[in-house]
Design a protein that fits this description.
Layout lengths: L2 H9 L6 E3 L2 E8 L5 E6 L6 E5 L3 E3 L1
Protein name: H-type small acid-soluble spore protein
Main location: other
Family: Belongs to the SspH family.
């Protein structure tokens, strides 16, 4: 995924499915470096991780 698409997803009200390592995640924010994002798994777990946006896949 690229930085522009991450920004579009963050500003959208639609439920857009994004996966990281095969797991569905919510994108919380694009980090200031423009190369990473903070995400958390969909569901009851709220653990957040910083990941490379190039590793995010939109379904």
């Amino acid at each position: 995924m690229n930085v522009n698409r991450v920004k579009q997803i963050l500003s959208s009200s639609a439920d857009i499915v994004v996966k990281y390592n095969g797991a569905s995640v919510w994108i919380d924010q694009l980090n200031e470096d423009g190369e990473t994002a903070t995400v958390h798994l969909r569901g009851p777990l709220e653990e957040r991780s910083t990941v490379e946006i190039s590793e995010l896949i939109e379904e």
